[in-house]
UniProtKB/TrEMBL annotation:
Location of the region described as Disordered in the Swiss-Prot/TrEMBL record: 1-48
Keyword entries, A-Z: Membrane, Transmembrane, Transmembrane helix
Gene3D superfamilies for this protein: 3.10.450.540
Pfam family, one: TpcC
Ranges of compositional bias, category Polar residues: 1-11
Protein name: Conjugal transfer protein
Membrane spanning stretches: 54-75
Signal peptide as annotated in the record: none
InterPro entries: TcpC, TcpC_C
Species of the source: Sphaerisporangium flaviroseum
Length: 341
């Protein structure tokens, strides 16, 4: 019987693994791995393949990408905030933390408007004196007025403040002259705690009243309205007088209301509107208050003089009422949303 040759291609030390004539593969088992022997030896082999390792490296790559994005955004954000102040003046973005004193600028512009929009050709120097604290030194003293005509204005209210940067803004105020409402846009400059009007203002129309659509038809509870009328008449008389004892007869338990303390008197309970409902409802009442004249009597005035008589004002109220037994009691009184006819 022929024997197999034991001749090796090279010297091999004891325990050295036999080398394959084929090129190595990434799926070959670890040559250094020596399996355990015996009953307690693990049945699992070495690393099972390259798929798991690629998942690990992919996860690490994604994690590092997220970290890089966070770091870049964290560095970029303060740089952008720092450079925001370099935006052009025409930008529509209003700085939120420019340091410009908006409240003081609004007050300054309102006072300027009160001087600027009031003039009288018979006394031009009066306007020039009132404008001095607002306009730059060396500016023409009437600041664009030709010295003719007459105008008066009042009811100055802030519309908005457009902050351009830490020292410049345009403040727009509302004003009324007779039946005309205006807006006046005033450019202002701020430095060292002081303001100055930095250019000619712009007079703009404020628009008229909005068109009010017709209100929806209101459903009435005639029975409740008839029950409420005498209660409401007594309540509004006590409300006008400010009589706390009398008011307690008409308000719900635990409710306290302040009255007018005699500054008005009830002339008429014009209407009561109560929708259908349960024992608690929200109703509308229209009243006419008589308001005593506050003016100093004119010498020679007669009792028939209209200015010497009490003025009447029609007012609409929204009341929350609650029925207890046969009577209704007031829990709250506010201004009405829209008068219900």
């Amino acid at each position: 019987m022929a024997r197999r040759s034991n001749v090796q291609q090279g010297l091999r030390t004891a325990g050295e693994p036999e080398h394959s004539t084929y090129p190595p593969s990434p799926y070959d088992p670890d040559p250094e791995y020596v399996p355990a022997r015996g009953r307690k030896a693990s049945r699992r082999g070495g690393w099972s393949g390259g798929g798991g390792r690629w998942l690990v490296w992919t996860g690490r790559a994604v994690l590092w990408a997220v970290i890089i994005v966070i770091v870049v955004n964290g560095v970029r954000a303060p740089i952008e905030r720092f450079t925001q102040g370099d935006q052009p003046a025409g930008s529509s973005v209003t700085p939120t933390s420019s340091g410009f004193p908006e409240a003081d600028a609004a007050a300054f512009a309102g006072q300027f408007a009160a001087a600027y929009l009031v003039f009288d050709g018979k006394n031009p120097d009066d306007r020039a004196e009132r404008l001095k604290p607002f306009i730059p030194e060396g500016e023409e003293r009437q600041f664009g007025w030709n010295g003719f005509g007459r105008m008066s204005a009042g009811a100055f209210q802030l519309s908005n403040v457009e902050v351009l940067d830490a020292q410049n803004a345009v403040v727009t105020v509302f004003a009324q002259s007779g039946a005309q409402r205006w807006r006046l846009s005033v450019p202002v400059y701020y430095s060292n705690g002081k303001f100055v009007v930095s250019g000619k203002p712009a007079l703009l129309p404020a628009g008229g009243a909005a068109g009010l659509p017709l209100s929806a038809q209101v459903e009435h509870d005639d029975t409740a309205e008839n029950e409420l009328r005498p209660q409401l008449e007594g309540f509004f008389k006590a409300y006008a007088a400010g009589d706390a004892t009398q008011l307690q007869r008409y308000v719900a338990q635990g409710v306290t209301l302040d009255g007018f303390d005699g500054r008005v008197t009830l002339a008429d309970l014009k209407s009561v509107s109560a929708p259908p409902g349960g024992t608690s409802r929200e109703i509308t009442a229209v009243v006419v208050w008589n308001i005593a004249t506050m003016a100093t009597p004119t010498p020679g005035a007669t009792p028939t003089d209209p200015a010497a008589q009490a003025g009447g004002l029609e007012q609409a109220y929204r009341l929350t009422v609650e029925k207890q037994g046969d009577n209704w009691y007031i829990k709250d009184i506010r201004g009405a949303v829209r008068s219900a006819e």
